[in-house]
Amino acid sequence: MPGKLGKTAWHTPTLSAASHELDPYLPGSGNLGYRVSRYDLDLEYRVNSNRLNGTVVVTASSYQPLDRFSLDLASGMRVERVMINGRRVRYRHRTGKLTITPNTPIPAGGAMMVEVRYGGNPRPVRTAWGTVGWEELENGALCANQPNGAHSWFPCDDHPEAKAPFRIEVTTDAPYYVLANGRLISQRRRAGQTTWVYEQVEPMATYLAAVQIGQYERRTMVDGPVPVHALFPPKLAPRLEGSFGRQPQMVQAFTEMFGPYPFPAYTSLITEDDLEIPLESQGFSTFGANHCDGTRDHERLVAHELAHQWFGNSVTVARWRDIWLHEGFACYAEWLWSQHSGGKSADEWARHYYAKLAASPVRVPLADPGARDMFEDWVYKRGAMTLHALRLRIGDGDFFALIRRWTEKYAYRCVTTEDFIALASTFTTAPLGDIWRDWLFTPALPPFPTMR
User: Fold this and answer.
1) CATH number of the domain to which 277 belongs
2) Could you tell me which residues are beta bridge partners of residue 88?
3) Which has the least CB within 10 A, 196, 244, 261, 364?
4) Which of 307, 333, 355 is the last residue of a domain?
């Protein structure tokens, strides 16, 4: 791609796209031959024994004839039965793939309801970036799937472009609160257990699907057009306001900057355990107890995770090499919130991190950093610097109009760097080719950007 902008093949994947390709960053995740249109998860979880039993129905349609196909599912889970359209079929489960053989081949355009009954003791899967997926806590559980840990706890097409609506039903011991994606549509208690049912109607990538379980207290921080909630261990209640109290103002500020909040509500969940880093899921974010210390020392992380609801969760990359479209935008949101709330300006933060980037040069371009580096801090900061350079070039009015159009045009869809370049060109007559060349496609750090 470097030096070949004029020859780029534009790619705008959507939920209705006929197919998707496997990602070279994660070639073992994702599957070919079909498109998922819905997931229905019916789970039962025992906290004390970390035992998960589930029945998952994957509704899909084939885009090519299939005499067999696969789902991603961690080898630690034991499959008990697989059915297609109500009939039992043969399967093989090994090395993280559930390979299914229909009784008769599925024709191109054929509809499938694939039901998988399974169980086991879920645990994270090992990746080049550490362990990801289902994690057992001291008193509960959480899911930290990014980038490919969803298959640690349910069978799926574990690829960011394979977005679909979800229904998630979880039954667990009555003292525990269950948070999952979407709206809570029912809660039933019976014989010492509670069943929680969530409906996530906006299409969601599998890595953003999550079930968080703990003995939490729930507080509504604001009940307005965008309700903002918090879930936390009761012992952390005195610290909550100091660390998370400005979230309603953040939602309002980001809505003005980025466009309407893309989901029905937003929740911050704070676990009893310390967590090294917070993580985003669709509709909520998860923080460790160490991030709720009664101060604003971690407020940049609160802003970062909230911004991912627009950049990453609603507008999602089709391929992992474009992760700067998630992390660069969320990092820049930190700088924007700092300025909005009376702290350092975005330009001051840009200069601060430019010096750090200059001190640690890299040899790969931002638009394709390589799988090993895609979660490195320089990707976040250089992504934010790219946006700052663009803002200085086209001016605040056109810059924020572009960002709002970006989140509107591609809401609940998947995108590439080329999509952003193409859209940006419609908001200015100023030449932008040097910005993309210098900041996205050339490893060397360009001079600090200036206004034109």
Assistant:
1) 2.60.40.1730
2) 83
3) 364
4) 307
Q: Give the CA distances from residue 138 to residues 47, 54, 160, 185, in Å, rounded to whole numbers and listed in that order.
A: 9, 22, 30, 28
Q: Two tokens at 302?
A: 């609160």
Q: What is the mean pLDDT of the chain?
A: 95
Q: Are 209 and 316 in contact (CB under 8 A)?
A: no
Q: For the chain, how many structural domains are there in total?
A: 2
CA 10/CA 420 separation, integer angstroms: 11
pLDDT (0 to 100) of residue 316: 98
Question: Residues 50-89, buried b or exposed e (16+ Cβ, 10 A)?
Answer: bebbbbbebbbebbeebeebbbbbbebbebeebbbeeeeb
SS3 357: helix
pLDDT surpasses 90 at 9? no
**What gap in Å lies between CA 81 and CA 74, rounded to an integer?**
16
Residue 302 shares a structural domain with residue 391: no
Average pLDDT for 97-102: 98
Residue 150 DSSP label: G
Last residue of a domain, one of 274, 307, 340: 307
Give tens-digit pLDDT for 26-45.
999 999 999 999 999 999 99
β partners of residue 56:
41, 116
Q: Which spans in 169-283 are helix H?
A: 237-244, 247-258
* Residue 415: its H or E element: strand 414-415
Pair 354, 254 in one domain: no
- Global pTM reads 0.94
If asked whether residues 190 and 238 sit together in one domain, one would say yes
Task: For residues 367 and 293, state if they share a domain.
Answer: no
Residue 246 DSSP code: T
* Residue 129: count of CB within 10 angstroms of its CB: 15
How many Å apart are CA 426 and CA 300, to the nearest integer? 31
For 312-335, what is each residue's pLDDT tens digit? 999 999 999 999 999 999 999 999
Q: 349, 332, 316, 322: which is closest to 391 by C-alpha?
A: 332
Concatenate the DSSP letters of all residues of 297-348 into one string.
Answer: TTHHHHHHHHHTTTBTTTBEESSGGGTHHHHHHHHHHHHHHHHHTTSS-HHH
